[in-house]
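Reading group handout, session on sequence-to-structure problems. Before we discuss, look at one worked example. The prompt was deliberately terse, the way you'd type it at a terminal:

> structure Magnesium transporter MgtE

The input record follows.
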Amino acid sequence: MSTTTRVYAGRLNGMIVRGPDAEPIGRVRDVVVSIRPTTHLSRALGLVVEMTNKRRIFVPLLRVANIDPSDITLVSGSISMRGFKPRSGESTVMQDLVGTKVQVNDPELPHLHYKPVEIADVELERTRTRDWVISRLAVFGDRPKFGRRADLHVVPWAHVLGATSGGFGQTDATTEIIASFDDMRPADIATVMHEMSMLQRQQVAEELDDERLADIIQEMPDDHQAELIEALDIERAADVLEEMDPDDAADLLGELPDAKADVLLELMDPEESAPVRRLMTFSPGTVGALMTPEPLILTPQTTVAEALAMARNPDLPTSLSSLVFVVRPPTATPTGKYLGCVHLQKLLREPPSSLVGGILDPDLPPLYADDTHETAARYFAMYNLVCGPVLDEDNHLLGAVAVDDLLDHLLPEDWRELGLRPDPIHSHTPSSAR
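And the output record:
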């Protein structure tokens, strides 16, 4: 997590960007933002980083672990090497925004009302959901005569008028569609995109950032997933697959021709492709093909406080945060010997300093990688769980299977296309109320 929660884009410009190993990657040259109508949050999407070979790449802000006075540290050294190219509806702060004119209606600055003011800098703020949004603008007022510097004012973003998408340029239908997705869940966006023509789906996919597109593709029917991945240029398709959950990426690659899947796996970062390759070795109808290799895995010496902090990770699905799995080192799957698990409810009842090794539930039976989907369904029904451990024959933890992934495979293939329908039993008006 970044300790800095407010920063001006101008201050980031020129800062060194480092990987988690502290090795320099390049320097920040701009910040990419998405300007939305006043009823929506305008977000900062990422950094334009110039590498030592002068190539400029895009680094999502969600990859930023820490912003210090002199440099920026990333969560992972795995980043896309594709050259930066702004998409529809995106603007860059230094190139597109700074120096342009807007209007303000800040009640604290009545002397600036109805006058064009020039943007000097853009303040970004990190929200509780880890998104970065535009919070304020620094603007120049009237420029005085005799060469004196203009007064600098700070204006809340809510009081800025005249800012539109695409670098204050013309908007288009695709930009408006993407703007309408701002406050929607990925599953709901996938439903909307299902109703689009194939061409329109592809146009929208081209303009979405990799992480957002990955979240949406995971919620689509299999044929639409394969269609969109095949429509993307091959380097970007590999980047999107890296952003997907390993089990979903494995399922999608299984829908593609073997030759295409092999090429995409080669293009993916080895650290990201390794768990996907492992999952693809399991038969389609088994628990092994459904599981995620990245559940919450701890050693016995972990404290309850540390376990709860990890369970609060906003990137972790709620089903996977319900259980923590305790193993002997190593903790990367396949792990050392599996010792047991602890339910989130039990963690909440224990003193923060207690060790998870002392509060294990060692008696909960595991699932095995070659178990069938029906076996997993009976397991969840019997033990009232939404997540369960998956072991190999040598008692090593391979991953965890979540009930939502199981339902995805047990429901009819077209369940996403049917959507949520009103229950016919309850959808009629009672005769007494007519």
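Points for discussion. First: Confidence is low (pLDDT under 50) at residues 166-170, 421-434. Second: The longest helix spans residues 373-383.
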